[in-house]
Each structure stands twice: as C-alpha cells, then as structure tokens.
Amino acid sequence: MKIHPSQEQLIQYCEGTLSDVDGFTIALHLEQCSECKAKARELEAQCANLLFGAEVDSGSHTNDSTVMNEMLDAITALESSTQIQQDVYQVKHAIIRTPNGKEFVLPKALSRHVERIGDWKNYGGKVYSASVDLDTQARVNLLYINEDAQVPQHTHKGEETTVILHGGFSDEDGHYHAGDYLTRDASHKHAPFTQAGEDCLCLTVLTEPMIFTQGVARIFNLFGKGMYP
C-alpha cells in the first residue's frame, strides 16, 4: 500500500465535514491501513481537545451564542461520527461472489450495505461491475477485473475515487495494491489492467461519466454523456 488520502481529507473525515460518500471511501481505506487509522485517531483527539478547550469571549453575548452554537454543532458531528464507527465495528464481514465463482470478504464499512449491492454486469471482456445504492448523486460501483484483462483508456468529466479492496492492478502511472486510495480527474488518462495470475476487486465512485479516449469504446462518447460502468 502506497497511496493514501491527503492530510486534509483525514482532517475533514475526523471533523465530520466530508460528504457521506467521501466519508465512506475514507472508512474503507482506514479498515485496511493501520498508518492512516493511527493518524485519524490522533486527529480525532486533536479535534476533541480544540473543541472542549475553546475559550468563549464573555464580553459579547452575541459571540457567546455563536460560539456555543458552533461547539454544539461540532459535538453533534463528533457524536454522529463515533456512532457510525461503532455501527461499522459491530457489523460482520459479508462475502461476495464474483462472476467467475471467486469469493471475497468485504470490509465492514461495505458489509453494512451488502443488501444494496446489485447484480454483476459485464463491462466488457473480463471486467464486471455491480452498483452499490448509497442514496447519493455520485455513481458507486464494485468493479471486478479478472486476471489478464484491461479497461479501455479513459478520462473523466468529473472525479473518480477508487479504493482497492483485494488484489491489484496497473496503469500508465504504476502498480496499485489492496488498500490504495486513488483519485483521478479530467487531467488524467489511464487504462487499468491486470496481469496473468492477478485480479482485482475495487470500489469506485464517479461524480460524472467516463470519457473513452482510445479504441472502439469511444463510440459511447457519441451520446454526449460518456459512460458509467
């Protein structure tokens, strides 16, 4: 594992200011990354110290009210975050079976939504996707890339976040392993692929459709909207 969320993302996660889907992807990464999990605990402690150590200016009743409201909002956010983490901790790991019959154990953050995972659909060749209905405008999918397979080269109208759950894949920029947290946008073009004897299960979040940049897959761009997996 070599690619992690940024320090700013971890801070926002601990403060409870990320969107639900971004917080979800961070939680998936934290289950697999002891380094980021330790950082998150430190940041949560720092947030708590800042929150309860805040000094209220007694010279202005208006400021008092504003500060107290902000503190109450922060406390509520921290309590909500803590409750979510406790709920995830109590969930049992679910198992998902891929189209080729291989079984994978899902992280607890995803296992709690296992009933929201749709059926596998062939994405072309040895690549399959299953939607995850998280009641968000972003498109969330499980993506399974069988061994010795490739996703057509593409870029993005919006942002793509990928958390590798099992196995690994490569693209033009390098090789990625389980736990890696990747973000791609319109400035990136890549064609993820697996090698012989290697497959990959990952979760992807797309805020906008993909735009294919090579080969016959570009026909999907003719509709003017790109394509979701």
Q: What's the structural blueprint in terms of helices and strands?
A:
Blueprint: H1 7-15, H2 20-32, H3 34-52, H4 61-90, E1 95-97, E2 103-105, H5 108-111, E3 121-124, E4 127-131, E5 139-145, E6 154-156, E7 160-171, E8 174-177, E9 181-184, E10 200-206, E11 210-212
Helix pairs in contact: 1-3, 2-3
Domain ChrR-like cupin: 133-205
Protein name: ChrR family anti-sigma-E factor
InterPro entries: Anti-sigma_ChrR, Anti_sigma_zinc_sf, ChrR-like_cupin_dom, RmlC-like_jellyroll, RmlC_Cupin_sf
Structure write-up:
- This protein has five helices and eleven strands, in the order H-H-H-H-E-E-H-E-E-E-E-E-E-E-E-E.
- The protein has 229 residues and is α+β, with helices and mostly antiparallel strands.
- It has two domains: 84 residues, no CATH class; 109 residues, Jelly Rolls.
- The strands form three sheets. Strands 3, 4, 5, 7, 8, 9 and 10 form a seven-stranded antiparallel beta sheet that branches. It has a two-stranded antiparallel ribbon with strand order 1-2.
- A hairpin with a 2-residue loop joins strand 7 and strand 8.
- The chain is globular.
- About 3% of the residues have low confidence.
